[in-house]
Amino acid sequence: MSKKVFVFFPDGVGLRNFAFTDFKEIGENKGCQIVYWNNTIFSLKDQLGYDEVKIENHETHPLTSLYSRIRKHIELNVSQKKFSDKVYETYKFPFSYNGFKNTLKTLYIRLLIGFNSSEKGIIRIRKRINALERSTIKYKYCKVQLQEHKPDLVFCTTQRATQSISALLAAKDLKIPVVAFVYSWDNVPKAMQVVEADYYFVWSDLMKDEVLKYYPFVKESQVFVTGTPQFEPHYDDTLLKSREVFFNENNLDTSKRYICFSGDDETTSPLDQYYLEDLAKAVTNLNVKGENIGIIYRKCPVDTTTRYDAVINSNKDVIEVLDPLWKPAGKNWNEILPTKEDLGLLHNVCAHSEFVTNVCSSTVFDFVAHDKPCIYFNYEQPQLKKGIRDIGQNYKYVHFRSLPSQEAVIFCTNKADLENQVKQILDKKLSNVPDGKKWYKIVAGTDPTAASQKIWDKIDSILKQ
Predict the structure, then answer these.
(1) How many whole angstroms separate alpha carbon 334 and alpha carbon 313?
(2) Contact between residue 308 and residue 343 where contact means Cβ atoms under 8 Å apart
(3) How many H helices and E strands in the chain?
(4) 208-217 long-range contacts, CB within 8 A, separation 24+
C-alpha cells in the first residue's frame, strides 16, 4: 500500500523547488501518494492539477509574531556570546520607538529578551510560542484535516514561516513524522529556524554542521544532507532555447553580448540602482571603444519599488528589462509567487549571458552552474548616508565565511575598476568559475542534480522505520 505524504507549503517560497520541478514525479515513482497541504493563496489543483488540501484558516496567535521576534533576538544574543562574534548583532532589525504603542511593545520585548537570553531561555520562549499556537483555532482546524486525510509523513518546504507552527504541532501531536527542509543558504546562522521537526533536510555538510552548532536540541541522527532542488532546473536541457529563439522572444539584439544585472531587494541593497548605473556607464564606455555589449536587468522578484526606473530610462540603449515571471496573488510582497515558466527564463538568462553582476546573492551559483562568472559589487556609493544600510555589511555575514578563497567570486571593490573587470571577463582573462564551483559544492552539496531524488530516498527510509 502506498504511503501518503503531505508536502506542506506554509508560504509560496517552496513552490519553485517542490511544485515546479520533477519533485512530485520522483516521489510518485517511489510509490508515494503526494498531497500538497497548501497554506498559500496559489491553487495547485487549479493551476497544475495536483491533489491538494487547502488550509483556509491562516490565523496565527496574535502574540506569535511578537514572541518569534523575541526568540530570534535571544538566539542571536546567545550566538554572539557563545562564539564571541559581533556579526550576530547585524542580523537584528532595529526596535521601533515611534509612538506610544510601539514604545510599549518594544519595552516589553526587550524586557523578555533580557530575562531569557540563555539556551534555557530559548527553550522557554519556544515552549511559549508552541503553547500559543496550540491554543488557536487554526491548530484545531489543521488537526482535523490531518485526522481526516491520515498522511504518513508531513514534509514542510521551509523551516522559517510562523504560518507553519500550528500545523506542524498538530502533526507532531498526532504522532505523524515531520520533516523540515532548511530553505536557504544563509538561514541557519540568522536564527530563522521557526519550527521544531523530527527531521531536518539540509543542502550540504556545511549546513548540517550549522544546524547542530546553533541548535543543541537537534541530534545528528535527525539531520540529513540532501542538497536542494533550487538549482536542478539549470541541468534540465529541455528548458534551453537557442540563442536566436531566446533573443527574438525577448527583443534582444543578436549582435550583442549581454551581461546580467541581477537586482536585490531593498533591504539587502538599498542603493542597488546606482550599481546598475555604474555597470551601464562601464558598458557604454566599452562600446565607445569598440565593444558591442548590452545589459539584461532582472529585478528581484519581490521588489515592487520604482528605484531603478530613472537609470533604465536614461540607458535604454544598453539596458533591456527581463522581469522574472512571478505573479502577484495578493497585495503583500510575500504574495508575489513564482511560476513554472520562470524556471525556463532564468535558465536561459544564465545560458545566454556572459556573466552576472549583483550584490551578494546566490545567483552566483545559478551562473556557476552554467560555467559563467559573477561580479559582486563591494564598494560604497556616494549616496550612502546615515540611516541607509551599507552593502559591505552583507559580506561579513556568516554564510560568506564558506568561501574557499577570495577567487570564488570576483569582487569589485572600487568603482574605477569595474570597466576593466568587465573587459577582462569578456576577454576570458578573468573568471571565478573554478573556485566558484568549489564554493557551490560546499554550499549546495556534491550533486546539485540529484537533490529531489535524495530527498525522496530519505523520506522513504523514514517511512520504513
Answers:
(1) 28
(2) no
(3) 17, 15
(4) 211/182, 214/75, 214/79, 214/188, 214/189, 216/119, 217/123
Three-state DSSP class for residue 1: coil
pLDDT tens track for 277-295? 999 999 999 999 999 999 9
CATH superfamily of the 238-444 domain: Glycogen Phosphorylase B; (3.40.50.2000)
Quote helix, strand, coil % in the chain, to nearest 5. 50, 15, 40
427: enclosing H helix or E strand: none
For residues 358 and 264, is the Cβ–Cβ distance under 8 A? yes
CATH 3.40.50.2000 fits 4-60+136-227+448-463, yes or no: yes
How many CA atoms within 13 Å lie on the side-chain side of 268? 19
Half-sphere exposure in the Cβ direction for 174 (13 Å, CA): 24
Q: Which grid coordinates are listed for 137?
A: 483555532
Q: How far apart are the first and last CA of the chain?
A: 15
| H/E segment holding residue 123 | helix 119-134
For 243-267, how does the pLDDT look when each residue is reduced to its tens digit (9 = 90+)? Answer: 999 999 999 999 999 999 999 999 9
> CB–CB of 44/38 below 8 Å?
yes
**pTM exceeding 0.70:** yes
The CA–CA distances, whole Å, from 280 to 38, 221, 270, 409 equal: 42, 51, 18, 21
